[in-house]
Amino acid sequence: MHVKKGDQVKIITGAYKGQIGEIMQVLRRTQEVLIKNINVKTKHGRPTKEGEVGQVLRVEAPIHSSNVMLYDIHRKVASRYKHIKDEHGQKRRVLIKLNKAY
């Protein structure tokens, strides 16, 4: 998967196109991501115990990972990335448009 938890991403297609958010969770099996405060749906919860009241919860729904792109907040650029080994031999993600480590 090209994105990880905690990455800043920009949505490139769909109803939320152009919005920017942070990835809260990556669902690898379905290749979807949950983005904080984006694609929020309301979920109605029933009371489970006697005397308890029902709830209306706001929950983020998943978006397919192909609809998001890594985003650099400081330079305000969305870009694809490539892997480069640094001087210590570790793989780093580098944004192609900026040629700088993410």
UniProtKB/TrEMBL annotation:
<dbReference type="InterPro" id="IPR041988">
    <property type="entry name" value="Ribosomal_uL24_KOW"/>
</dbReference>
<keyword id="KW-0689">Ribosomal protein</keyword>
<dbReference type="InterPro" id="IPR014722">
    <property type="entry name" value="Rib_uL2_dom2"/>
</dbReference>
<dbReference type="GO" id="GO:1990904">
    <property type="term" value="C:ribonucleoprotein complex"/>
</dbReference>
<dbReference type="InterPro" id="IPR005825">
    <property type="entry name" value="Ribosomal_uL24_CS"/>
</dbReference>
<feature type="domain" description="KOW">
    <location>
        <begin position="2"/>
        <end position="29"/>
    </location>
</feature>
<dbReference type="Pfam" id="PF00467">
    <property type="entry name" value="KOW"/>
</dbReference>
<dbReference type="GO" id="GO:0006412">
    <property type="term" value="P:translation"/>
</dbReference>
<comment type="similarity">
    <text>Belongs to the universal ribosomal protein uL24 family.</text>
</comment>
<protein>
    <recommendedName>
        <fullName>Large ribosomal subunit protein uL24c</fullName>
    </recommendedName>
</protein>
<dbReference type="GO" id="GO:0005840">
    <property type="term" value="C:ribosome"/>
</dbReference>
<dbReference type="GO" id="GO:0003735">
    <property type="term" value="F:structural constituent of ribosome"/>
</dbReference>
<comment type="function">
    <text>One of two assembly initiator proteins, it binds directly to the 5'-end of the 23S rRNA, where it nucleates assembly of the 50S subunit.</text>
</comment>
<dbReference type="InterPro" id="IPR005824">
    <property type="entry name" value="KOW"/>
</dbReference>
<dbReference type="InterPro" id="IPR003256">
    <property type="entry name" value="Ribosomal_uL24"/>
</dbReference>
<keyword id="KW-0687">Ribonucleoprotein</keyword>
<dbReference type="Pfam" id="PF17136">
    <property type="entry name" value="ribosomal_L24"/>
</dbReference>
<dbReference type="InterPro" id="IPR008991">
    <property type="entry name" value="Translation_prot_SH3-like_sf"/>
</dbReference>
<dbReference type="InterPro" id="IPR057264">
    <property type="entry name" value="Ribosomal_uL24_C"/>
</dbReference>
<dbReference type="GO" id="GO:0003723">
    <property type="term" value="F:RNA binding"/>
</dbReference>
<keyword id="KW-0934">Plastid</keyword>
